[in-house]
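Preliminary data (for renewal application), zinc ion complex.
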Amino acid sequence: MNLSVKKFSKIVIVIFVSLQVGVYAFGQPAKTKMEFTVAMENPANYLYQVTIQCEEVKKDWLDFKIPVWMPGYYQLLDYAENIIDFKAKDKSGAEFKWEKAAKNIWRVYTNNNDSITINYQVKATRNFVATNYLDEERGFIAPTGMFMHVNGYLNQPVTVTIKPYPKWTKIATGLEPLPGKAFTYLAPDFDVLYDSPLLIGNLEELPSFSVKGVPHYFIGYKLGSFDKEKFIADLKKIVEAAVDMMGDIPFKHYTFIAIGPGRGGIEHLNSTAISFSGDGLDSAGRTGMLSFLAHEYFHHYNAKRIRPIELGPFDYDKGSRTNMLWVAEGITAYYDELLLRRAGLMDEEDLLKAYRSSLSAYENKPGHLFQSVTQASVDTWSDGPFGRTGDDVNKTISYYDKGPILGLMLDFKIRHETKNKKSLDDVMRTLYKNFYQQKKRGYTEVEFRTVCETIAGVSLAEFFDYVYTVKEIDYAKYFAYAGLDIATRPVALPGAWTGLTVRQKSDSVTIANVEWDSPAWHAGVRARQLLLTINGEAATAKIVEQLQKEKEAGDIIHLQVLQDGVIKEIPFIAATKYERPFAIIRMKNPATLQAAILKDWLKGK
Ligand SMILES: [Zn+2]
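Predicted structure:
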């Protein structure tokens, strides 16, 4: 946790509060004392017991609030719903009257008392990186769902004492321990507290390692069985590759908090909460897991510190929307693969394959004709991080697919325009220095573009058209900057193309998906219809698959489907499917500059 972040959030939050509430018109509100105690007396009940000791705020009433989201996970989470048994008392134990002023606000009529004790319980049944969880084996605290703040007092220091279930011995967190007090932590303000999850249990700690004198810890629950020494050696190489590139480490320690097997990870200021299992790490799953860890680690630069201006100070009541997740998430996804290569953990072929897979995922969804990557960023709050699912025509894309490709194109373009003297690395370092370190704030969209164009030394109008519109991308031109060929010419696939995918459950076959713009689509076949027969035969998943292999373009396919109790006959003509392979390979005879760009890009220069 870097001091400049703290100072920055304080200044801005005070202004924000005085505008929003009008109560603290002059300067900073008086200091409060906020002390939390979190107990877990009976983990089998999935309930945490929280006590807040709040001192030195004298008002007629106080609003105690819980956030509605966790920064890094851009979805509304109904944390308030999990809070039960709310009580507010004075020193003598007499209860204050309180009411719900909004779904996430408990208004307590404190009548100018300056010592208030709040008690509540938190239901913790969902095992996920953004939600609280508790069972007989471990507890995970998602701080935005656990700790209430007093409205207007986000910038106050907080202490948190955890009372672990008696059989548990260890806590993993990025918070600073308070010396001399067991399991007690200090956060300089609520922004830091909300960015510091805690995992409690009989946890396993892998050997720590230091980079530039800064210790990095890996602690977790059910880590699994794998070569732990080799894993830590690889993780250290990834951290070193990221630090080599950025040149600075903005905290005193960092913790990878592994919450157990599952899916997902969320970046925090000096920690990350990740779903993790080491089983399978010594085989095929290794690269995927390492690039996931590289992704979360690189986020402490890109997203937490190099950040869109909308992402901090956060709006804990509504969520913070931005056009720029293609940078915060997409460019992080670009670097998570590249850092593995630079760390010597991925070969060139696998690196190019990884980018090809993002590129194909983007191009092969009809959403790429409808939604720009900035729109996907804003709409993530309703569509989800990977775009919408379940629609007849999917009109959305994922910034996790298009973002890394834009990152790669921007990198190649800058290298080309500067004769390989500058790169996207320079953009990241400049944003870090100019905005995080000097201006102590996020960048605006215009500022991001200005930094890119200043470093490239040319207008990047065409590139930013790809960002803000759905214009077809000239991949060949951008890949050629690094002496790479990309196969963009459509290739005919064998067999008869219908566009159908079916799902069979015992004897019943359902249309699972119909590709947009396919022959079946144009004939009116839709997902969720029941498929009775195909070319006169009773449908099975195997027959449908077989038929598409054996028939040819021009052949008639006749379906009988059941929809809303009505049998429909649907004939259509199969076609040929063309697909752009997007395979990326080295050019046979690259020019000197092209060869130099590829070489330095792969090395991290
Ligand atoms: Zn991410």
